Amino acid sequence: MPTAIYPMLAESIAEPFDGPEWLFEIKWDGYRAIAFLENGKVRLVSRNQNELTARYPELKDMAKLVQAKTAILDGEVVALDEEGKASFSLMQQRTGFRPGGRRAAGNADVPVLYYAFDLLYLDGYDWHRVPLEERKRKLASVVQSGNGVRYSDHYQEHGKALFEIARGRGLEGIVAKLRTSCYQERRSSEWLKIKIRHRLEAVIGGYTETKGSRTHFGSLVLGLYDKQGRLIHVGQAGSGFNQKSLGDIANVLKKLETNKNPFFGDVDALRKVSFVKPELVAEIEYAEWTGGANTGSGPKLRAPVFLGLRDDKDPKECLFDQN
């Protein structure tokens, strides 16, 4: 039985597709974890080989729901919201994540479970070289879904339809996997991930200083207006620029610099922030909202990307409830 597994990783593509040679799964928005099951005990290890077992004590009995003396499963630790949807924001609360990469005491009241989607070892046999479809068939037969662990099902051929279902439920995306793929402990084009992205317009209220080889500014500090007319900080966008756009935007920002903080409250940022008058509107693409009342911080955009400036939008139109 192997003592270390480096998870197989998927390459990213932009659009969903159909294909009879592919299986399609929901992309669970949590923390990837390899589960080593041996004689009724479980050990959870992250993709970076960090021990996770003690972090999730409610998963210590998941071995009882797997019909095996020894097994290695690949899956995702997720926190589900009231609608049964995997929530990365809840996972952050559970682990104690804070904006800027800081950590605090996690909230143990946020329950988690393990979605198993692959089988790598079972009772003395290594399953790495067995085709995916057979691995999943065997996995489904040995995992008894219940408190703590669930089998992550798949759908055949119809990736576009599953993508639209995932979009309608507000999920992170889907994963396409070749039915005949063997398990490779590296990134492979035999697994493909297709993420769902969202867009909104946000007010630029400042920018952060540069780091490394970056010139002009590090990231744009973004905000949205609440119902009380207060500009609330919602995150920083540091990607989506080229050298020309960095220079062009920096020239505009310099003209709007101010010593007054336009945001209501403090700004969560690791680098020094220079404030600007809230007169510019940016089109932003993002993955989802994270944070909230229970995290010690307001809601934040996850993985925001700058798409461009919008001169057709009034900053006061940049509200939380954009349609």
Summary tags:
six-stranded mixed sheet, 13% helix, 2 domains, OB fold (Dihydrolipoamide Acetyltransferase, E2P), D-amino Acid Aminotransferase, Chain A, domain 1, 323 residues, mainly beta
H-E order: EEEEEHEEEEHEEHEEEEEHEEEE
Q: Which CATH architecture of the largest domain?
A: 2-Layer Sandwich
Overall, the morphology is: elongated
Rg calculated over all Cα atoms: 22 Å
Give the proportion of residues in helices: 10-25%
CATH class of the largest domain: Alpha Beta
Report the strand count.
20
Structural class: mainly beta
Task: Supply the number of helical segments.
Answer: 4
Q: How many discrete structural domains?
A: 2
* Relevant CATH superfamily of the largest domain: DNA ligase/mRNA capping enzyme
- The share of residues in extended strands comes to 35-45%
The name CATH uses for the topology of the largest domain is D-amino Acid Aminotransferase, Chain A, domain 1
Uncertain ranges: 98-102
Q: Mean pLDDT, rounded to whole units?
A: 90
- Sheet of most strands: 6 strands, mixed
Task: Characterize the structure shown.
With 323 residues, this protein is mainly beta. It folds into two domains: 9-188, 2-Layer Sandwich (D-amino Acid Aminotransferase, Chain A, domain 1); 198-317, Nucleic acid-binding proteins (OB fold (Dihydrolipoamide Acetyltransferase, E2P)). It is 13% helix and 39% strand. It is built from four helices and 20 strands. The chain has helices spanning 88-95, 132-142, 159-168, 243-255; strands at 9-12, 19-26, 31-38, 41-46, 70-78, 97-98, 102-103, 113-122, 125-126, 149-151, 155-157, 173-178, 187-195, 198-208, 220-225, 231-237, 273-286, 288-292, 297-302, 305-309. Strands 3, 4, 5, 8, 9 and 10 form a six-stranded mixed beta sheet that branches. A five-stranded mixed beta sheet has the order 1-13-12-2-11. A hairpin with a 2-residue loop joins strand 3 and strand 4 (41-46). The protein is elongated.
